[in-house]
Amino acid sequence: MARATTTRRKALMTALGWGVAFVIFFPILWTFLTSFKTEAEAVTTPPKFLFFDWTLANYHEVNSRSNYMRFAMNSVIIAFGSTLLGLLVAIPAAWAMAFSPTKRTKDLLMWMLSTKMMPAVGVLIPIYILFRDFRLLDTHFGMVLVMTLINLPIIVWMLYTYFKEIPAPILEAARMDGATLRQEIVDVLAPMAVPGIASTVLLNVILAWNEAFWTLNLTTTKAAPLTAFIASYSSPEGLFWAKLSAASTMAIAPIVLLGWFSQKQLVRGLTFGAVK
Amino acid sequence: MGSINLRQVRKSFGAVDVIPGVDLDINEGEFVVFVGPSGCGKSTLLRLIAGLEDVTSGSISIDGRDVTHAPPARRGLAMVFQSYALYPHMSVRKNIAFPLKMAGMDEASIEKKVSDAARALNLGDYLDRKPGQLSGGQRQRVAIGRAIVRQPTAFLFDEPLSNLDAALRVNMRLEIGELHRELGATMIYVTHDQVEAMTMADKIVVLQKGRIEQVGAPMDLYRAPANRFVAGFIGSPKMNFIEGHEAARLGAHAVGVRPEHMAVVAPQNSDWRARVTAVERLGADTFLHLRSDSLGAMTARAGGDESFELGSEVGLRPDPARLHRFGPSGETLAA
After folding, report:
1. Model ipTM value
2. pTM of this prediction?
3. Which of A202, B23, B195, B237 has most Cβ atoms within 10 angstroms of its Cβ?
4. Which residues of A touch B52 (CB under 8 A)?
């Protein structure tokens, strides 16, 4: 009897799970489907789900109107560049916090994280003016810099939690064995922290790829990434849903695929600090 | 090569004085054991010598050279950790070669030294394995291998055997002793196990609350402990302490007598009588746990073949030459 109940319960929970997953996934699916519709079919009521005239016209149109590859390249430069720069700063920082903590280390970590809670728009004007005066507007370097600073608290936090799991005696052994600080970090700490560094890289590439507030406000053409590419298809000439969907699909495809193939690492990254 | 001198070495963490000020001389080639209960500061003292902790004040010198502020690598010491602290991502070969690589030695010499060490430690078949694929004893051997290849001035051992099972511990104890005789190098060994201290040391340093209670050869500490703490810590089973009327009669605040220095006799043949509360048979010996109103709880040793009944009364006759007398603050009183 008990067994029958559990089986039915399991089936119910499975159905519920799939239901929730479908609801969450639906906007992406709908964007994908809309990108193959004509502009007229994209706005019909009732909406057409699968039975419409599939067309690639939107993709052709989007491709002829703007240079997708240039935007994509900018996204790659900003996402990977800022993650790399962030790691260079965050690995020594997290090392210091994990292995020679002081009384204020926890406070410092909390303070770093708290900067993420501030609304970005609150510092838009000072940053915009700084960027203007230092001629960083619409430059790759400027965007890499701002994205690094935005994600640095998360990079430091993630690495800190991974480093905390590495037993301190192993690093002390390296010190006794004559390793310099650089050798200790490069030859001993980093190889042991590879899984953690990998998930940190992944999560930060995704965050930087999807960031839209700063990229939209600080770029125009030269350094504009895919977020700006999507935005160029909404206003001001009115909304073209099908073309907007095609642009969105093209913009998110690389990062969705990256996420898809690295799910295992990602889950560990997203739940960092949850267990220990 | 290998003398170590500590002068007024003090270590405090915030307001807490972990080591209030220690003077200690370790001679070349000596096997010195730091022993004491947990939290007595023995590991901290070792880490201060290693350079893994900074001294708050005082000085440390090795072979007459002041190394108080030198980084660990510059002190010429090698350390074996309780948790082995092997590099998990490197093979056994690379683990042992690591200090040589750090010293910038050429590949051919490294290869030769690693294979020599591996042969000496019976690790030849495991050189290409990762530490995760080894047993506890093998890991400890790799840690020792990593320490010996660089021919340090002195070896530091931080409770290296406490993660091993009892049988393996006895083996490794002998192996480390043998290593000491072979290399003739100074060794400092930290343990909370007084048996390890007694069997391995040339010189035992007994610590309590960061202070040195006594320094001396194992048998000197056993025969002539400086105070009640050392008397109770060295020797197994523990020394019996008797206070009150019986101690006062012998002119002391407390009287100590080791279980092995009391004969167990018939009750009518002795002034000290006690009731048997537990009997532990070890084969060669029998340990009796006893209780009496005038003496308190005591332990006595009897032959392995003698039999005792729980609750029965026995007499105890201490060897008068082996009675220890202590004053009110625990100090040993002259005989």
Report:
1. 0.84
2. 0.79
3. A202
4. 172, 175-176
